[in-house]
Amino acid sequence: MPRLPSQFREEFENRGETFFQIAELLYTNHGRQYTQSEIADVVGVSNSQVSNLVDAMEGTWLNRHDSQTTYVWNTEAHNPTDTEATKAISGF
Q: 3-state DSSP helix/strand/coil percent for the chain, to nearest 5?
């Protein structure tokens, strides 16, 4: 399973477990859009808590579509496929 980029972990190192659960969900499913309610159901928190947690990730790490509560990993800035390929190549 892909792991969040080290840059992400360093930037948000003091955030809680739920914050990283949300980030990992979006990162590992980077081609899928999630509604705030779907994220809340998967992680087991309220919609308002999801909103508070993802605010810090928006823009650089996440895209929020049309000011809605639909989120997707920002693959233009941080593409999981590129990250994993680089890790694989450097492992040889």
A: 55, 10, 35
